Amino acid sequence: MHLLALFSFIATTIVAVPHNCYPRGEWWSPDYGHALDAVEDVCNTLADEFEPNETKYRCINSNKGHLKFEFWTQNAKTGYARVMEKSLCVHWLQLIVSGCWLGGTVTRDGWYYRADPNHGRCGSLDSVARTTI
Prior knowledge:
Blueprint: H1 2-16, E1 20-21, H2 32-46, E2 49-50, E3 54-61, E4 67-75, E5 82-83, H3 86-99, E6 104-108, E7 111-119, E8 129-132
Antiparallel strand pairs: 1-6, 2-5, 3-4, 3-8, 4-7, 6-7
């Protein structure tokens, strides 16, 4: 029984961690907690209807130093528009923040998510920006 529980835990952990963590760049810390909390606010804006290949972006300034948290979501499906659920947005972006100390990406079920801490402050793009590739 314990072996089955251990196997289940390992399998869940392997699936849960994004595989595309960045190898270099800025760290979420010293404001990791704010970055994790910011995802909820970010997804209030980004979880919306997306056209095919449409990308949405949101930037949040860190409370500490000259650090900004940048978030992108994209409908990676080319054939049709669809709506991103807020719960999925929060889940995947928080997973990147908690699992990739330098930021990273994950693509699941035709959705692309990116979270990246960077030096500097947000500019006029602090509100949501939309682009279609």
